[in-house]
Amino acid sequence: MITTHKAPVVGEKLNRNQFETILRTALLLEENRFARQAALAWLAQYPGDIPVSLLYAQALIKAGLSDQAVIVLEKVCQHDPEYLEAVESLVQAESSQQLLQPAPGEKSASTSSRSVFSDRVGWLLALGGTLNLIRYTGLSHSILREKTFSAWSRSLAKSRLALQQGDIATAEADIQDALGANPDCPLVVVVHLKILLARLAENGTGSHMIRSLAAFYRQRWPDCVICNLSLAEALMDSGEPDQAVALIHEAVTKDITGQVAERLWGKDHAYRDLWPAEMDLELDIPIPASVSSALGWNALPYRVDVVPAAPPATQVNDLSHEASATHSSLPAVEESVSPQRTPETAETIRSVQEELDRISSRLNRPGLTLADGRFPVYVVMTTREGLERRFGKQTTEVLENEILRLVDTIQGQREWGALLYYADYATCLRSDRHRPQQLERPAARPDDPWALKLALMDLDTALKKRGERIGAVLIVGGPDVMPFHHLPNPVDDGDAYVPSDNPYGTSDENYFIPEWPVGRLPESSGQNPANPQALLYTLSGVTAHHLSQRGENTSTAWYRRWIVRLISWMKRKAQLPSFVRPSYGYTAAIWRQASINVFRPIGEPGSMYVSPPDRGSSNARPAKDGTLLPAARLGYFNLHGLPDAPEWFGQRDPGRGSLPGIIGDGEDYPVALHPLDIMNSGRAPQIVFSEACYGANIIDKTADDALALKFLQVGTSAVIGSTCISYGSISAPLIAADFLAHAFWSYLRGGLPAGEALRRSKISLAREMHNRQGYLDGEDQKTLISFVLYGDPLAMPVGLEFSAKKFQRPAKPPANIKTVCDLAHEEDAHKQVPQEILEYVKSVVEQYLPGMTGSDLTLSYEHVDCDASHPKYSAGLSAQGSSHVVDHLTGHQPYPLARKVVTLSKGIPNATRMHKHYARLTLDAQGKLVKLAVSR
After folding, report:
1. Are residues 414 and 446 both part of a single domain?
2. One-character DSSP codes across 614-677
3. Both 245 and 180 in a single domain?
4. Which of 639, 707, 645, 641 is nearest to 679 (CA)?
5. How far apart are the first and last CA of the chain?
6. Which of 178, 188, 314, 783 is a Cys-bridge partner for 736, taking CB atoms 3.0 to 4.6 Å apart?
7. 851 and 916 inside one domain
8. Does residue 552 fall inside a structural domain?
9. DSSP one-letter code for 257
10. Low-confidence winner among 189-198, 368-377, 570-579 (lowest mean pLDDT)
């Protein structure tokens, strides 16, 4: 009982014991709404509090939200598999869902569902629980007839009992049946590790075995705290204290009350100081009168018989947040209260945080302590009015059904929730179109991109109150359905504005660095009347990809991958037509050196195709019968693109004697790739990155006019490209699009999905340019906002040896980055360019850009005091009907600038097209070239 004699007031701090007593009393008195709100407020500050996570789940069960409770409890039980109360609650929640009992008119539950529930029951019985709590559901007879779990469950129970009695030999013998059955139950792992630790303590042997098995078990059960602690103990014994302490600190974040460590090592173990000694929270919501009365705080008592004592604490990592995630409909926003954080964190918490920050860098996980641990939600975003205007009401219903099928498929994955969000209706759908949930916000105009972005931010706020977060966004529809943001063009070139999806990936106005991955499934906007078949095909492809991921059996994945590699090797050796190479690269000859560096993470540079090829080269694509792209899983293109041409072009390198005539009509800019060159039949690359100018330009275009749309049409999962003019380097060091592409392939090769790989590559570009020059200049900014992803942001290449990694959203949005403006002002146009600059630029052009001789020249100076009346600063925003104008220099701090930018522009005609080229030469204070960027 709480020792205070009066009810705490709003703003008063409660320690943990007081808070838990209030929470348990609220549950006993059926004050479920208060219990959920209070638990979320606590978990927002202490996400690793396992007992409070359990109480939160029990409140969900009492409120009839068993599906949400199961998500929370699965995480809790994985963190602490010995937590009997949590396992009992998990079985109860799953029983109430009647997974094994079909509803009238429905088919019986799947074998996999029966097996999972059977493992849960065996887990409960092994801990000494009973089946009494599920008898009322009518499931007990079918479960008790199941003998699949009985042998391993009894074996595990006997082994636990023998271990508690100190009979290690009997414990080792009894657990063998459980290990051989390999159930979906982490308790088997926990008991086995405890047996090995007891043997080590008894005779000092087995440390190496513990280390190997703990590392193996940790891969299978990464959330199990005892795996961390066992591996840490083995590392300590082998003389590796740094790694051991790092693992213990990671355990602290998952189990902040330290109950797992106390059960393993005792209450006064050697590492107790790493856990916080005190935890408290300001009360920001009123305590119900019934609870106050039961605790003796009201003059008028409220009858209650007993408040049970709090059981020993137990595990959970980001359960507070992930736990509250659900596969059910989004409830009304007012159901939860946003927790207020205390202005100062306790000193003990702060010291632990500092140590975690230090250790996380040693673990090669520098973002471990800065990650947002809330449960991620895959948001499929579109506008209902836009779809109906584009396709008609009846076809929109068909599209909605396909979207909801995708939502339901993703919700079948443990790691993700999903929903369909009609931003113009402020309405969410999970899987049942007849149960829409309305957000308390005005509907957004479907043609106003900034209003749609604000609607997405409001959705994120609503999800936060449930412990969820936006994990990724998939925009359905082209610019006629979900408009691009037309951002100011930070570069003096031919683009009036930059079409971008970047603002849909941020929670504030800093649109340079996305906080979550964003993808778009566009349709052929240049086609009237609209044909929904391509969009339906792409949607079904995304669904099929996630279905295959959900059905993957991790226990057999290793030999499947081995068989796939063996078959691929045999096809390659036999030169079979069905052989699918890992990657494919295609570059303009003049950018060969930069492309080689970009291509290295995914392929051999010598295998890249070049347009036009060198004399006698073997890397030329045949002109007639072999124009189809070779089958490959990854495709990289560094070619020319034009706003009004469907093709991508090569460019001759005059310095290497490229041979005109092998491709095209002997021109300097031969056609390298045409939409007709791209076909399906398993040949389409799964992931495509193009540096071409306008490589992602789809406005008023069809699949016959835009290669990006054609790739999607033939089955490519993700296409990354620029919506306007893009810039890159001629050789090392890589800049702009070249740097972005290299970082993207590196992150993808490291196991991240395409959308997250693109997001992180943008962060890497911003960080690298800050390190090099202290800020982002014009082409840096344009690269960050112009490159978009078409397709599924969670797309992963299948068939390559990529081990998928989980990713988390940062807990806080990125700080405003420093940017400079290097646009030429009106007065600059009338200034005469100094002769020494002209002479120097001429020498550089002759050496690096011989085709640019005789170009128009513009000189500008990098600056921060911009003239906002210049048309470049607001170009395109008013055209979208938005009154919100973003100044790309907001938040700048004055710092010395002395660099000049010379922009060259020249139109070079060939037989049928005018190729417009831009080159940007950045000169330092001494007039020396420090950066050279050329358009693609």
Report:
1. yes
2. BTT-S----SSTT-SPPPEEEEEEE-EE-TT-SSEE----TTTTB-TTSSTTS-SS-EEE-GGG
3. yes
4. 707
5. 71
6. 783
7. yes
8. no
9. T
10. 570-579
